[in-house]
Amino acid sequence: MATMHDVARLAQVSVSTVSYVLTGARPISQATRAKVLTAMAELDYQPNAMARGLASRRSRILGLLLPMDERGLGATETAFVTGAAAAASAVGYHLVLSPVGGGGDLDGLRRLASQRMFDGVVLMEVQLADERVTALQQAGVPLVLIGRTGDTDGLSYVDIDFAQTVREAVAHLVGLGHRQIVYVNHSAETLASGYGPALRTRDAFVTAMTGHGLEPVMIPAQDSAAGGRAALAAAFARTPDLTAVLAMNETAVFGILGELTARGLAVPDDVSVVSMVTSPQVAELATPALTTMTSPGSAMGRIAIEALVRHLDGAGDERHQQLLPCALEIRGSTAAPRSRHTDGG
Amino acid sequence: MATMHDVARLAQVSVSTVSYVLTGARPISQATRAKVLTAMAELDYQPNAMARGLASRRSRILGLLLPMDERGLGATETAFVTGAAAAASAVGYHLVLSPVGGGGDLDGLRRLASQRMFDGVVLMEVQLADERVTALQQAGVPLVLIGRTGDTDGLSYVDIDFAQTVREAVAHLVGLGHRQIVYVNHSAETLASGYGPALRTRDAFVTAMTGHGLEPVMIPAQDSAAGGRAALAAAFARTPDLTAVLAMNETAVFGILGELTARGLAVPDDVSVVSMVTSPQVAELATPALTTMTSPGSAMGRIAIEALVRHLDGAGDERHQQLLPCALEIRGSTAAPRSRHTDGG
DNA sequence: CCGCTTCGTCGAACCGCTTCGACGACTACC
DNA sequence: GGTAGTCGTCGAAGCGGTTCGACGAAGCGG
């Protein structure tokens, strides 16, 4: 491995000159620059990342903190992670995937932050009240959240615009003529734990339905196919003439579809289904393919990283707060309701 | 941020003594150790990762090189990545997710390797003939492959035992009484490009079927639901009385299921389906849930990292070569064939 | 009681880069 | 033509650790 000294010697200049050629921190004449560049090429020189990081106090490494308690990432999260990795790589940063124990491991987090390995971090799966955020802030690490806390004062975040997403989804169904729409949310425990997406979509659903003069019927469901089945059964018990299901639960939605088929109901002729915050790949797995509110997973990853890097490179300490809506993608699982009951109620 | 000097001053010892307390490279008396530890606690000292990396020439960072050309990772790859991240974190290493341009970007790879940022790397999606492997070897980076090249001499790798996996899958179907089994593989282009899993399962399928005295019928399919549909149509054209499908293509298998339903055929009563190298989460999305050869994604990630770290920490330069079979998990998509043709040919 | 190890600690030399102050050589302006 | 800036370059001092050689104090066999 050639070092800067080797390059300097070969080019007959000082080390600092080599450094300035590399960083552009000071002007260098064309002639000198050429000499140095030639020497670098000849020696196949690559700057040592650790040395650079130590001297400049910038590691050019970003941390992606993800909770590891869950049983694996969903398609949306995966898209987010790869989008973030690609974006980081594109701007010359490295991205460390750092699984952190869910919640309890605050000390571990602080230790991580104090090692000065990360120039900044992206924190995933933020809860409404999240002590990790304050821990990280106190450690002085530049921070971008995915999701957001209740109080976002002085914080940078990127999140899904759940209100807008739900509004559009409901508008789509109502526009098709649906009146009996049931919302299948995450489980009651998840709601109770303060999981932002579940709470925000719940509120948004109530608002949207009420706005259309309709009754907001909501059913919780476990994150599993069985949970979806059970939820659909519960939905029919409560609203026998439902014609549409809005689901917030990638896993449960397939159970819903299965249960629908088992009951001899066709999608979309008897019941329309919209799956929210869902990736196209998953949507295509169903037959018919699911109409979804497509999650901007990869874009969110990119935007989060770009915001973080902008904050690091630029001197400004502006906060980046952005909400991204999910895009309605109409596939085969939604249609006008078959006029079973023309006007009853 | 307190430094080692601060700790040394407070504990009234030299910096090197503090270092020895930390690394254990030399014996330190109980009394001194206690003084140092107390000082560290008082100052809330955390060693600087960059400085340590520079001085020790060990960054404690591992690279996970994944091709970024594809449209996102599947569930199996995701499990692999998270498994690797968890394993790295457990042994005190960091894991950098490094998307590298597929194939052509050899120079970028070399540059990456020369930066000495990674103590070692895990290379995913290895092709049968993969120049990235030699590039990395020449750069002198400790390396573990996921998948394997044609010639694995002197290389460490972890891969799926495709031969064993296919043998078990076929045995399962044959054991149920199936005789007309069609194998749906990846696309012809993928085969032609030298994609190991596709080639190895192809060969294994021929061997397994021939071993049972059966004819190995194989159909390629694009990696999409539509591809699965087309493949199934082709399969029926070629083998009208097929009773079982063995699929090597997580995406296509859902198209196959859809097409089966469209043709009025029930799973598993009319046609049994086994999906290979598939995660349980995906299996549960289908109705009925798919019988799979479950991919050991997370375990592979863990094993790869552990092998790499063992190689780094231990002095030994033994190679780690390991094949992991997929486990047969019987769910609802396989059953004995309905005796449509009792014995016909 | 002497010479030899072993133990515990220190000081100093790096690791390979960035960055600051200094300085000679020009250019520019009055 | 003297003074004041720029420009281009150099030397040296870090950045915060690790690690090696050295050395005094014990411990030990003869």
UniProtKB/TrEMBL annotation, chains A, B:
SUPFAM superfamilies: lambda repressor-like DNA-binding domains, Periplasmic binding protein-like I. Pfam families: LacI, Peripla_BP_3. Residues 2-56 form the HTH lacI-type domain. Signal peptide: none annotated. GO terms for molecular function: DNA-binding transcription factor activity; transcription cis-regulatory region binding. The keyword Oxidoreductase does not apply. It comes from the Bacteria. Keywords: DNA-binding, Transcription, Transcription regulation. This is Transcriptional regulator, LacI family.
